[in-house]
Write a structure and sequence with these properties.
Elements (H helix, E strand, L loop, with lengths): L1 E10 L2 E11 L4 E5 L6 H9 L6 E6 L2 E2 L5 H7 L1 E4 L11 H13 L13 H13 L15 H14 L4 E5 L10 H13 L4 E5 L3 H7 L2 E6 L2 E6 L1 H6 L1 H7 L4 H4 L2
Parallel strand pairs: 3-8, 3-9, 6-7, 7-8
Antiparallel strand pairs: 1-2, 1-4, 4-5, 9-10
Helix pairs in contact: 3-4, 3-5, 4-5
Length: about 250
């Protein structure tokens, strides 16, 4: 479904992502790991369209989307949390999700349209708000939500777009212990559908071990490991050089 071919980006003399070729199949969750500065988020930016590649290409469903804008890639089915989805801070939680549902259904984005004209859209928005455990905050302004709830709202908006590919960049970062299970349960549910391609950048190895079908490791912008999570995590070179942990820590 999704593939990068020799994707590369240079900033001056620095090669941030260096000829990374990788394909991601439907029904799989791939974790992208590596130390800080390894190129993980930059790789995500190249896939989602926030950055343009110096070399190489990105393909979705066999179509070259390298020159497509980020918004065009979204319409093709490439969805990214948390940078692609933007909150409307002065609108309520459910209104934010309603706009995303309307965008998916191409109903237009008229903020002043009468609610009753879009009862199905509103019902779908409330359903998604409930799934991210924000039902009791549905009418609250997005700007009033704490960080963890804003992240849950962004996931609801991403789900409203019904993408083929979900890209999660450290989805639980900065969240409270109580909020983390909500996000992980949503990712598990998406994975269980077996028709979505999921990419996950995550530093928490317990999350990676539980969710990932496959791990790829980036270091200095290069793809240095790719395979079964157990084998990749157990690799001494990955543990010591790239994940910065010992064998004992990897199995805690």
């Amino acid at each position: 479904m999704l593939e990068t071919k020799n994707i590369t980006i240079r900033f001056g003399g620095h090669v941030a992502v260096d000829h990374v070729s990788c394909a991601f199949a439907p029904g799989t969750l791939t974790a992208i790991v590596g130390p800080n500065g390894a190129g993980k988020t930059t790789y995500f930016n190249l896939i989602s369209g926030q950055l343009r590649a110096t070399e190489g290409s990105v393909h979705l469903d066999g179509v070259d989307i390298t020159n497509d804008s980020a918004s065009s890639r979204t319409h093709r089915g490439l969805g990214r949390a948390f940078q692609l989805t933007q909150l409307f801070p002065n609108l309520s939680v459910v209104e934010n999700v309603r706009l995303a549902v309307q965008a998916r259904r191409k109903e237009g984005l008229n903020l002043w349209s009468v609610w009753l004209d879009h009862r199905d859209t509103l019902a779908r928005a409330h359903e998604l708000v409930g799934r991210v455990k924000l039902g009791d905050r549905a009418d609250a302004a997005a700007s009033s939500l704490p960080h963890g709830d804003q992240r849950k709202l962004e996931v609801a908006m991403l789900m409203a777009l019904e993408p083929k590919v979900y890209m999660f960049d450290e989805p639980t970062a900065g969240m409270s212990v109580d909020d983390v299970p909500v996000i992980l349960d949503l990712i598990r549910a998406l994975k269980a559908q077996r028709d979505k391609t999921i990419l996950l950048v995550e530093h928490k190895m317990d999350v990676v071990r539980e969710l990932a079908d496959r791990i790829i490791v980036l270091h200095n912008g290069q793809l240095v490991a790719d395979g079964d999570p157990t084998e990749v995590i157990a690799s001494p070179v990955v543990q010591n050089a790239y994940l910065g942990m010992t064998t004992a820590q990897a199995h805690d």
